[in-house]
Write a structure and sequence with these properties.
Elements: H1 3-20, E1 31-34, E2 37-41, H2 42-54, H3 59-69, H4 84-92, H5 105-114, H6 121-128, E3 134-138, E4 145-146, E5 153-155, E6 180-181, E7 186-187, H7 188-198, H8 213-216
Parallel strand pairs: 2-3
Antiparallel strand pairs: 1-2, 4-5, 6-7
Organism: Massilia aquatica
Pfam family, one: Cys_rich_CPCC
Domain Cysteine-rich CPCC: 147-210
Length: 222
């Protein structure tokens, strides 16, 4: 890679981070730049977006994410990447003592990266776009399960009681349209009708769905 490419690569990172008031060092790995277009692999893109999101977290959101991830399994492949002081805290404390501490940022980074699992590359590209710079994210999205209600590929596993971020259907394995779903308190057919008219399985669920959920995930065409 030529010096010119390295310089431009660093500049793209600086511009994007300046836009979100977050400092990020030059991205590692392969990054091919040509003219006004930047090619980035999926892992780099997600890492950069997670760092952006980290800088915008409210105290309430930091606390919520830390509590959700405080029980991370030591056998999790990502656990070994955490700094030793943080791993000691996880092993010996029931919860974080000060959610504002930068000590917890690596764990929050993991949580935020996880939120981009299954997100389509076009969405990542759009999020990374800069004025006058087109970013193209490349890489395998991976296999995702289709939500029985909204038909978006938003679930990591099927029939595991995961909640869809697009419509807020809890996937209990129900696939029959007129069978009552206990966790969802309605039939699948009713939930699909509500999603078409309300944008969520119930009126009360609208506040929990991702505002850009339909752009994040691929739609499974029947």
């Amino acid at each position: 890679m030529s010096f010119g490419y390295v310089t431009l690569k660093t500049r793209v990172s600086q511009l994007f981070i300046a836009k979100t008031s977050i400092f990020v060092s030059a991205m590692a790995g392969s990054l091919a730049l040509a003219g006004l277009r930047c090619f980035m692999n999926r892992k780099e893109a997600i890492s950069l977006l997670a760092r952006r999101d980290l800088g915008t977290l409210s105290l309430e959101k930091r606390e919520s994410l830390l509590l959700d991830w405080w029980s991370i399994d030591p056998d999790d492949p990502q656990y070994a990447s955490l700094p030793d002081p943080l791993r000691r805290m996880l092993a010996h404390s029931d919860q974080p003592d000060d959610p504002t501490s930068a000590l917890y940022n690596p764990l929050l980074q993991l949580a935020l990266e996880y939120s981009y699992i299954g997100v389509v590359n076009n969405y990542l590209s759009t999020q990374l776009a800069l004025p006058g710079k087109e970013v193209t994210v490349e890489g395998d999205v991976g296999d995702m399960e289709v939500c029985p209600c909204c038909r978006y590929r938003s679930l990591e596993t099927g029939a595991s009681y995961d909640i869809c971020g697009v419509c807020f259907w809890e996937d209990d394995g129900t696939t029959e349209l007129h069978r009552h779903s206990g966790p969802n308190h309605q039939t699948l057919s009713d939930a699909q009708r509500n999603f078409r008219h309300l944008g969520a399985v119930t009126e009360a669920s609208r506040q929990y769905v991702l505002a850009d959920g339909k752009n994040r995930y691929a739609l499974m065409i029947p």
